[in-house]
Amino acid sequence: MLETQEKPIKFAEGWSAPADTYRELRESAMSKFRELGLPHTKLEDWRSTSIRDIVETDFSDEEPMIGDIGAILETIPLAENAVLAVFINGRFSARHSKIDEIASGVTIAPIASAQPDRLGSVASFEKDAFTALNTARFSDGLYVHVPRETAFSKPIFAVFIGTGEKPVVVHQRVLAIIEESAEATLIETHVVPNGQRAFINSVTECIVGSSAKFDHAKLQIGSTDAFHITHFQAEAGEQSRIHQTNVTLGGSIVRNDSRAVLNGEFAEVTLNGLYVATGTQHIDNHTTLDHAKANCPSFELYKGVLDDKATGVFRGRIIVRQDAQKTDSKQSNMNLILSDDATAFSKPQLEIFADDVKCTHGATIGKIDEEALFYLRSRGIPVQSGRHLLTYAFASDVLADFPVEEVKEKLEALLFARFTSEGELPNNHDKRA
To answer: Among 68, 136, 270, 363, which residue's Cβ finds the most Cβ atoms within 10 Å?
Structure first.
């Protein structure tokens, strides 16, 4: 029934494509959005996630920003010597950005001004309604282009802020092209200030050339009343390396789709993720590693920490095409449950059409190890402090290979503070002294 609701469909009513380079692309995307309708729980890919709360919220896409943007930026893990591009309610803010000192040949610019011609070439909207809606409605985003044999050493930070007195809807876009033998690091942060509600619908597409290296991270922080729908699509060329870390802390309903096609021999892709949820947060991670060529390794580690009545969903697909012989793929999903009312769903999947492969997958759902807790207590550590330490140790493992050390340390401090603050994770379900 959700796809027939009037409120979200109002985005399509009376709509006309803006007069820009992407007019034809936008019109095609809007046509597909109308055809697909919004997803509902009768669809296999959405059976564990209802978007009813999104449907029933009255959003504005013209809401003026509120609050101190500088103060919001201070809450975000950033690095000192970095490129910074800030977007507020989907629009570039030159005032808060630092993209002036860019190496020769490298392009880091708002999509609205750069107008890259390869936008939409990777992220298909043929089967995804939210990608279609984003393609039709995005107003701006970040374009990154690193030419061949260029190692861009500064990390690039793209900060997307959704803020307004009324719930605001933001469609934001990222296109990163890393050419042959080039290197770059891009960190996206999606933030809605605490106490505010916004619907952030984002699409990131990455084209990574042969022998290139690309580190990507996505952080979702801030309000637990916000809605996040994100789509990440990457193409990995021959002998290239892509490493992604996805960290979700904020959001009421969150759906992250991360997909990578290993489209060149000896390409390597890593997809890691950490999701931490309390209250009634619902966090859904879908990943796809599509091995299209031979001799490609891939690695995947997703961990969830769930408390109160929170829900975590993980569905990971590994596809090995017929020509992808000698594939080596490893996938693991681990969930730590801190409450009897928290729920975790895990569905790892292998689809193998080749006969000379090594593919493993696994999923675990459990509580804190009582033997480890007893060991800490025997060393004089109080039970609650022991729970904090074990929870932090479990979660921080995902951050081991985070691409920017300065940000990694800030994230670890943020996690540790969250796990040890009164009323935050983990709750004191064990009342023993």
So the answer is: 136
Query: Letter for the amino acid at 261?
Result: V
**If you search the block for the tokens 């007069």, which residue do you land on?**
19
Angle between helices 383-396 and 370-378 (to 10 degrees): 130
Query: Which whole-number Å values give the CA distances from 385 to 337, 397, 428, 430, in the listed order?
Result: 17, 19, 10, 11
Please tell me the total number of residues recorded for the chain in this structure: 433
Q: How confident is the model over 167-193, as a mean pLDDT? A: 96
What is the token pair recorded at 162?
A: 């959704």
Q: Using CA atoms, how far apart are residues 90 and 141, in angstroms rounded to an integer?
A: 7
Q: Of 145, 156, 119, which is closest to residue 26 (Cα–Cα)?
A: 119
Q: Which residue has the tokens 């693991």?
A: 332
Strands (E), 193-263: 198-208, 213-222, 227-236, 241-248, 253-262
Show the CA angle centred on residue 372, arms to residues 369 and 376, nearest 5°. Answer: 135
- Please report the pLDDT score of residue 364 as a whole number: 94
Phi and psi torsions of 279, nearest 5° = 60, -125
- The one-letter amino acid at 281: Q
CA separation, residue 379 to residues 376, 382, 383, 394 (Å) = 5, 9, 11, 20
Select from 268, 237, 244, 269 the least CA-distant residue to 148: 237
**Whole-number Å distance between alpha carbons of 206 and 119:** 10
Q: How do residues 75-120 score in pLDDT, each as one tens digit?
A: 999 999 899 999 999 999 999 999 977 877 999 999 999 999 999 9
411-to-166, 228, 274 alpha-carbon distances in Å: 29, 20, 11
Residue 306's H or E segment, with its range, is: strand 297-306
The better pLDDT of the pair 9, 296 is held by 296
Query: Left if phi > 0, otherwise alpha if psi is -120 to 50, otherwise beta: which for 23?
Result: alpha
Look over the chain and give the mean of its residue pLDDT values, rounded to a whole number: 90
Which of left, alpha, beta for 149 (phi over 0: left; psi -120 to 50: alpha)? left
Q: With the C-alpha atoms ordered 33, 86, 256, 165, is the resulting torsion angle positive or negative?
A: negative
Residue 234: other Cβ atoms inside 10 A: 26
Q: Which two tokens stand for residue 151?
A: 């190692």
pLDDT in tens, 192-228: 999 899 999 999 999 999 999 999 999 999 999 999 9
pLDDT of residue 165: 85
